Amino acid sequence: MSSLLEITWTDPVTGCRGYVVIDTLVRGLASGGLRLRKGCTLEEVRGLAQGMTRKEALVYDPADRYIPLGGGKGGIDVDPADPQAHEVLARFIAAVRPVVREQWNTGEDFGLRQETIDKVAADLGLPSTVEAVFATLDDAPAARERLAEAFAVMVGGVSLGDLVGGYGVARAALEMAAREGIAEPTAVVQGFGSIGGAAARYLARAGVKVIAVADRDGLIRNDAGLDVEALLAARDGLGVVDRSVLTDVELGDRDAWLDVPCDLLVPAAMSYVIDAADVDRIQARLVVEGANMPTLPEAEAALHERGVAVVPDFLANVMTNAWWWWIVFGDIEPTEASSFAKIDAVMHRLVTRVAEAADESGRTLRACALEVAADNARAVTERVGIVG
Ligand SMILES: NC(=O)c1ccc[n+]([C@@H]2O[C@H](COP(=O)([O-])OP(=O)(O)OC[C@H]3O[C@@H](n4cnc5c(N)ncnc54)[C@H](O)[C@@H]3O)[C@@H](O)[C@H]2O)c1
């Protein structure tokens, strides 16, 4: 299916390309973050925008005040560590400001922190990165206050907004591990930023032994279990751990993450990191997609053939997006307890429904989750209509 809107921007100063794709609009609105990644392509952003359409639909509950939006996404082909990245980002947002103001509700993604994009938006006269949604609400001032309050909550040194997505990934992994009867699981996580860091924290807190994590500087491993809180405390703004303060760890090549024997494999960094040639290296019993589009279709088919379930991205990492809207629409309180209770309940409902359908039909979790998203999308269309 073709996108509703695709923008390709070229930075007049550096020549870097940036992209916005609106896959679908619901009530004139789309939701989806912005990533900064050297090598990012229009095709990648298109796939991510389609994923956002699915995430929006998947969590639909007619009892919520939150009515799902359409899906959109942005990407800039720049290394987030490049000293010019901030200026490139500011010029990009300035250029696509009308779309941000009217349609595309955005936020952090790979290589971009929420506080950074908030600052850029504010400098351009946008009080938030979700102005288009606020414009549709009767109680926008109260919604703004709830969102600000939620982002001010710190949990163990990390902002709640940076935890909810990875908390959801951990919940998805734990639900599936329990269903598959995996006792005392071990886990390996690729990426230690917003999603990977929080997933590792909440897996460890649930008793999972996190034996290796990879960040952009390499692999950090301890087969007896890493001290995840110590790693989080040593992490910088790009999700890179300061090795000099670590004890009792083995350091390795970042691409060795796939070779570490474990039960739960959690890709939580870039897209396209597991291809068909990698499948034989994977010894895990479950792959839980914290990242968007980490597993290529042939790899997923081969894993399914071997009995390794892949919890798809638009199910496993759906909670960051949903949480924003539950807060904004007033379905939950801007607190840790209210946020985690809602995530627990919704992830349990979704994993149960999708896994039962997969068990009955022998199909992949992705195929079954796609069906749920499509059913929900139809229900949303019947309720509000799609403008596009
Ligand atoms: N942040 C969100 O709100 C959100 C929500 C849903 C899904 N996601 C997806 O989760 C994934 C991670 O996003 P994030 O926001 O956590 O990113 P982030 O920028 O916060 O963290 C990225 C992590 O990946 C590491 N990394 C970079 N290059 C690497 C490499 N070559 N090998 C191993 N690790 C490397 C970084 O060091 C960092 O630890 C992306 O696919 C993103 O689309 C993010």
Written overview of the protein:
The chain is α/β, with parallel strands linked by helices and 388 residues long. It has 2 domains: 5-136, 3-Layer(aba) Sandwich (Rossmann fold); 162-366, NAD(P)-binding Rossmann-like Domain (Rossmann fold). It has helices spanning 42-58, 85-95, 97-102, 114-123, 131-134, 140-152, 164-179, 194-205, 228-233, 297-305, 313-316, 319-329, 336-361, 365-384, and strands at residues 5-10, 17-22, 30-31, 34-36, 70-76, 104-105, 154-155, 158-159, 186-190, 209-215, 218-221, 250-252, 264-267, 286-288, 309-311. The strands form 3 sheets. The protein has a 7-stranded mixed sheet with strand order 12-11-10-9-13-14-15, with helices on both faces. The structure holds nicotinamide-adenine-dinucleotide. Nicotinamide-adenine-dinucleotide (NAD) binds at residues 33, 35, 108-111, 165, 190-196, 214-216, 238-240, 254, 268-269, 271, 290-292, 317, 320. Nicotinamide-adenine-dinucleotide binds at residues 33, 35, 108-111, 165, 190-196, 214-216, 238-240, 254, 268-269, 271, 290-292, 317, 320.
Kindly state the mean pLDDT as a whole number? 97
The amount of beta strand, in percent, is 15-25%
Question: What are the distinct ligands in this entry?
Answer: nicotinamide-adenine-dinucleotide
Spatial strand order of the main sheet: 12-11-10-9-13-14-15
Number of domains: 2
CATH classification, class level of the largest domain? Alpha Beta
What's the architecture of the largest domain, going by CATH? 3-Layer(aba) Sandwich
Radius of gyration: 20 Å
CATH topology of the largest domain: Rossmann fold
SSE-based structural type: alpha/beta
Helix content: 40-55%
Shape: globular
| The named CATH superfamily of the largest domain | NAD(P)-binding Rossmann-like Domain
| Unreliable stretches | none
Number of helices: 14
